[in-house]
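Field: sequence (string)
Field: structure_tokens (string)

Example rows 1 and 2, in order.
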Amino acid sequence: MADFLLYALIAGLGLALVAGPLGSFVVWRRMAYFGDTLAHSALLGVALGMLLQINLTLAVTAGCVLLAVLLVAMQNRKWLASDTLLGILAHSTLSLGLVVLALTESVRVDLLAYLFGDLLAITRHDLGWMLGGLAVVAALLACLWRPLLSVTVHEELARVEGLPVSGIRLALMLLIAIVIAVAMKVVGVLLITSLLIIPPAAAQRHARTPEQMAFGASCLGCVAVLGGLALSWNLDTPAGPSIVVSAAVLFMLSLLVPRRQ
């Protein structure tokens, strides 16, 4: 197997394994629009990273984390409805990122690679950054699994039991921000949220416990990565969109299977 294909396979499978459990919380808490907002802000991180000439993965991670903290702070103040606030920030950060990229005339940027992913162009260095970030997210998610479940099932009851609800909610948003930052190379800014949502949505219909849903989402994500890479290799299609199309096909197939009672 060629090195570039091996790196793409490892990166895609690693992302799918972590995105399954984390995406389950995105589906349960109906946070898809929040994920979209963070994904759109990732392009601003790319632009600032190029402007300041720093590591792009670090720049995108820092940008997503800062936006997540800003969102939580603004939501707590309740100046605007959450969906309105998310819509303003999503389109503002995406547009600002495009403006900054246009102003950096000395740097040539393959914008389509950042918007739709360029999985087959991942290098050994990119793979190291990505696997490191995913390992951190997986470890933190394992430690916070029970508190996150408690807050997701019944927030008021979790608060009565003494759990730091606001801190746990912020931790979940920061984990999503890190995954979005490291996943940008795989499926691109505009398609990241789909990998967090589609496999868990397909697994939800046939799972009896949260753990079954998380495991099923990871497995379906891995199958989507394998199918997308095979489609890209044989038909010369973009790898990121091909993975999302494979995930969508798996979701449609899951609808044909009778739901478990």
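Row 2 begins here:
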Amino acid sequence: MPAFERRVLLGGWLVALPALIGIAVLLLIGIPDRVLCWSLAIAVMVATALIARWQHRRVVYPLYTLAGLLEALREGDYSMRGVRGGVLGDAIYDVNALADRLQQERLQFEDSSRLLGKTLAALDSAVLVFDHDVRLRLLNPAAQRLLAGDRSTLIGRQASELALDALLAAPDARVIKHTFPGRSGRFDIRHAPLRNEGRSGQLLVINDVGRVLREEERQAWQRLLRVLGHEVNNSLASIHSLAGTLATLIEREPLADDWREDSRSGLQVIGNRAESLARFLAGYSRLAALPPPQKREFDLAALVQTVARLEQRTDVQVDAGAPLHVQADPDQLEQALINLLRNAVEASSMTGGRVVTRWRAEGERVLIEILDDGPGLPGSDNLFVPFFTTKPGGSGIGLALVRQIAEAHEGGVSLSARSDAPGVMAQLWLPL
């Protein structure tokens, strides 16, 4: 029996003890006179009242302490603790343990809330949370900037008042043009249902994709200008230097005996350099002006075999796969395969190896592979960057054009080292 129950039971017997003693006295001495009888009755009543008061304090005060601890927990004050050695030691111990756990959970919740707040504040995406009445309950600083309002004026307003109801009703994962109070442009709209306290809500995330695209466009222009500037400056520097040399040569009096030959040689170098620059710019124009693919159905096997026959420097082995008909632009795909096959033949010519081309269906796509026995993959990550080349006299257009054609068909291209032999495997895939 727990200590508190024993003390309550003992106190109950103590309260009844004066009456029991009075009855025992009467049984022992018989019925006394009236005065003694009243005196005994009064003594029994006083003793019973004193013991009852003592018992009341022993029972009620520990319960007051326990009630105070529970009230503190209910109000969220987890710092109060009870003395574990009292009559309610087990209950106080459990309440103290509960307070410790609740305090720890509160600290973890506050840490998580601070971390969530800092994360939301650092996001460039606007995050908004609406309750079951479609009223705004939470938003991050990016959302405040997008809506051009203070947090106090935005919280509690309905989505219709903020002109966001159409975004919540629209299909998920859409890119739309929209004008917000703080910004206009193209935005990626995503929303999802939420549950809070048993009620439904909605999460709305708005990403400004226009700004990302503008930044990518700016970086692309910077890369293009660096490449064009480097190539044009190299050509112009050579032409300017040679022109100055030729001007000095023909101004000499008297003219040197070999001035014609020197002039002819210098002009030839200037012409070659200008022609090289013209080819470079023509290659860029071809890359930049690639038209959209005109897709139609055709036999892939016939196209691959035609491309293989176009290569006259070596015999290209064609490992015929299953007959496949694809929806693509045959002219653009032929140009892409010619570029890949040309690179493979040039690589294999260094080692006297062979070139193999093959195709197969793989899931929802068709995969075209060209394998060579060349020296292997160049040590660079810029192989598909326009105007980057590892070959003397190369334009750096071929692989960039191949990738552009593949991506225009919602496919891709990759170069990787062969696992079964030295050389490179080029893979071009298109959706079936």
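free_text_note (row 2): Residues 209-250 form the longest helix (42 residues).
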